[in-house]
Amino acid sequence: MAGPTDAAQPSRHPVARAEAALVRHYRRLARLAYLALPADRDRHSRVLAAHAAVQRALPSRWTRRADPTDSVDDDPVYDELRHRVLLAALRPHPAHRLLTPRAWGLRLFTPHGDEEDAELDRALARLDAPARVAFALRAVEGLAPERVAEVLRRAGVERPADAIGSVAGLRADPDLPAFDPCAVRVQPTDLLRRRRTVTAALAVAALGLTTTAAVFGGGSGATPPSRPLIAAPAGSVADPAKLVRVPADQWQHTARLDFTAWPARGDRRDDAALLGRALAAWTHPDARTRVEPGADATPPVTTPSLLFAGTVDGTAVVVLYDGPHLARYTDGSGGGLDVARADDSDVTTAGAVVLRRQGTSARYLLAPWVDTAETRRIDQPDTPARALEHPDGVTAAAPTGTLADCQGATVLQLRSSPVVAEKHAFLLADVGGLVPAHLTYSPPPTQAVPARAPREATGPDALVAWAHGGCAVPDGTPGVKELELWVFAVQALPQNAGTAAWMCLRADRWNGEGSAATAVLLPSARGPQRTGGGRGRACSHFDQDTVGSTWWRSPQGTGFLLAAGSRRVTRLTAKGPDWTADRPTPDHTLAVERPAPATTQVEAVLDNGAHITPPH
Predict the structure, then answer these.
(1) Judging by DSSP bridges, how do beta strands 529-535 and 514-521 pair with one another?
(2) What is the dihedral of CA 75, 77, 80, 86, to 10 degrees?
(3) Plot region of 393 (φ>0 → left; ψ -120 to 50 → alpha; else → beta)
(4) 491: helix, coil or strand?
(5) How distant is the alpha carbon of residue 545 from its chain centre?
(6) By the 8 A CB rule, do 233 and 199 touch?
(7) Bridge partners of residue 571, in order along the sequence
(8) Cα distance between residue 337 and residue 143, in whole Å
């Protein structure tokens, strides 16, 4: 006769049994932790934190009684391990960061995903901990909503339904390699230094390493021997001779086009004294250190790469990069250090860095893959772009301006080398920080063409849209990574008064936060009229349904309430103090004659029956 199953049979060695379960399910637990942990940190720190959360799930004494009736899943031991991992994500302890495994001399990265993966990462960064846990349980475990709710309630979440509902629209693909902390790429931080000295090898022998991530790296449950990682000797981060210098043609031989592929440029890249002052400013921040929102003044933990050291308009400037951050050092009494987030950049967002500002102009250092550079006024779409000289990647002074002030900001129009992509041009707009923001555009929907991802804002329609609606951007401050303009509806106005273009403008920041604003562009208007907005994921890839409304007076003097929704809107309802308009909207728009503006509530019904209101 068959005996009890292992899951139901108490073990004489509970810790050993729990350890066996942890090894067997290590990759699964690590993926849960990676998705559930805060996404506002760089990938290296997040990978290590995920492994730490799983390894801390196994205590020195295992007092959990394996009772199948108290388990959400069939295996109560795994259920308890998962519970401990999720608690670490829901209620992180400050001391846990100090106990995180260390990987000295190396940076660990999950595989670089596509744009959808990047958008998912930004969406996770905007969620609270219970919502991230709900998404992780759905994506990794494939649990139904009611099972997810049970796990959340057991972990102490008071309103699990809210957490589950907030991630209902996210892509829960069980195969997410960009979110697997056991499938990492390893990049050395100080390769050139290790070629010159054996000090690091001696440091390894003395230290030994604390991380055991490699032990559980495979999905088969095998335990390969751990390999020590190389530790950087104390003081090497601040040594100018140890700065990483990428070969000039590195960008032509790598599939990773970001700041890691930038070579060292500038006429003072061998000036040890200047480089020493720049490194000292970064490793010892002081009152002259300026930190952009989303970044921090923490000294680099790895040897930085040198991107530039030269004289710009009579002032020495140094640009350094350590993976999570860019740092620009300006020499002299009026200088100092500027630090900005720069992780997870790409061929466009790593297209330029501001070297120096003077008044309303700036000089940029362009990416090595930029073939041609031009400037253009954002409010003059029909005016040809002007060539911008950029010997050795350093541009001449270019006018800037602020998109949000509607005064006609000047943007960069850059074209990539054919080695990178054929006929690839893109726009970058100065937002007052170290890195300009990438501009994208999504055209109005059509019945014949399904919704598509944002495209470069360099075509005629995109330039016209940005010219007329660009100053409604919700955020144009330092730390903004990308600005998107999406024309979500075009409305034929009553009394043959022309058309109105309804737009949603989105700003995504380097730290994963974002904001959106809806606006309408009416005939004869000097600029766009904002109709709503707020922070969150509105108008992003994960929330593509929106609606807006405004009051408008026609040239004949008649007042109308106008409303419009995105492509999935099938019905619009507007309610005033003493009236209601509720009707199907095959063209996704509504116009109701109203003599004067009044407090109005607008609601849209989607093709799946869901109800939405304007963002606020």
Answers:
(1) antiparallel
(2) -80
(3) left
(4) strand
(5) 21
(6) yes
(7) 584, 605
(8) 48
Q: Are 519 and 531 in contact (CB under 8 A)?
A: yes
Rounded Cα gap, residues 524 and 197, in angstroms: 70
**Residue 515 token pair:** 């904001």
- Whether pLDDT at 220 is above 50: no
Q: Do 501 and 494 contact (CB within 8 A), yes or no?
A: no
Strand partners, 432: none
Cβ atoms of 319 and 360 closer than 8 Å: no
437: CB partners within 8 A, 6+ apart: 428, 429, 431, 476, 480, 481, 482, 483, 507
Which residues contact residue 557 at a Cβ distance below 8 angstroms, ignoring those fewer than 6 apart?
A: none
- Mean pLDDT across the chain: 82
Q: Report d(CA 214, CA 222) in Å as an integer.
A: 11
Q: Report the Cα 164 to chain-centroid distance in Å.
A: 22
Distance CA 291, CA 324 (A): 13
CB 14 within 8 A of CB 62: yes
| Separation between Cα atoms, residue 614 and residue 582, nearest integer Å | 16
Is the sign of the CA dihedral 505, 509, 512, 513 positive or negative? negative
| DSSP 8-state code for residue 265 | B
Highest mean pLDDT among 67-76, 110-119, 291-300 belongs to 291-300
Dihedral sign, CA of 136, 139, 141, 143? positive
**Neighbouring residues of 48: CB distance < 8 A, sequence distance ≥ 6:** 100, 101, 102, 103, 108, 211, 213
- The three-class DSSP label of residue 250 is helix
Q: Which helix (H) or strand (E) holds 531?
A: strand 529-535
pLDDT score, position 189: 53
The whole-model pTM stands at 0.65
Residue whose token pair is 């008064």: 497
Token match 């390493």: residue? 209
Q: What is the 3-state secondary structure (H, E, C) of 104-156?
A: CCEEEECCCCCHHHHHHHHHHHHCCHHHHHHHHHHHHHCCCHHHHHHHHHHCC
Whole-angstrom distance, CA of residue 590 vs CA of residue 579 = 15
What value, to the nearest 5°, has the Cα angle with vertex 543 and ends 540 and 547? 100
* Cβ partners under 8 Å of residue 6, min gap 6: none
Phi, psi of 519 (to 5 degrees): -150, 160
Dist CA 503 CA 483 (whole Å): 13
Whether residue 354 contacts residue 436, with contact meaning beta carbons closer than 8 Å, is answered with yes
| 210: DSSP letter | -
Encoded tokens for 58 = 């196994």
pLDDT grade for 114, boundaries at 50, 70 and 90: low
The Cβ of residue 452 has, within 10 Å, a number of other Cβ atoms equal to 9
Quote the CA–CA distance of 482 and 461 in Å, as a whole number: 19
Q: Chain-centre distance of CA 372, in angstroms?
A: 27
